[in-house]
Amino acid sequence: MSTSDVRLNERTTHMKHSKLSVRVNRKNQNHHLWNNNGKWWCHLTVHKPDYTSERHRVPLHTRNVSAARQRRDKLFAEWTGEVGRKEVSA
Predict the structure, then answer these.
(1) How far is CA 37 from the centre of its chain?
(2) I need a labelling partner for 6 at 20 to 30 A (CA). Which of 30, 57, 61, 83 fits?
(3) Number of domains in the chain
(4) Is 86 contained in some domain?
């Protein structure tokens, strides 16, 4: 397991009782991704049981856009409880 995978796993532990709201623009392969000076980040909104929401910015620890897309998809799958699913739909 790589260092970035460990960091992603640490982030998922507090998400057990929250709901990830994902809207995917299928025309944009880089949805939810942001390049900050060459390093990729994932931006998303989490809706909590008390009807509040939080915006999360998660560093993906890569400069490669393909790796960033894979890590984003893995992050979404872990947070929605759908590990192994190839695509997260709206």
Answers:
(1) 19
(2) 30
(3) 1
(4) no
| List of residues 6+ apart from 6 with CB closer than 8 A | none
Q: Is the pLDDT of residue 26 over 70?
A: yes
CA dist., res. 61 & res. 41, Å (int): 8
Q: Count the Cβ atoms, other than its own, within 10 Å of residue 81.
A: 11
Tokens of 80: 């929605």
Query: Left, alpha or beta for 15 (phi > 0: left; psi -120 to 50: alpha)?
Result: alpha
DSSP E strand stretches across 18-75: 19-21, 33-36, 39-47, 53-59
pLDDT tens digit sequence for 33-59: 999 999 999 998 888 889 898 888 999
Residue 66 placed within a domain:
yes
Are 38 and 28 in contact by the 8 Å Cβ rule? The answer is no
**Bridge partners (DSSP) listed for residue 59:** 41
pTM above 0.70, yes or no: no
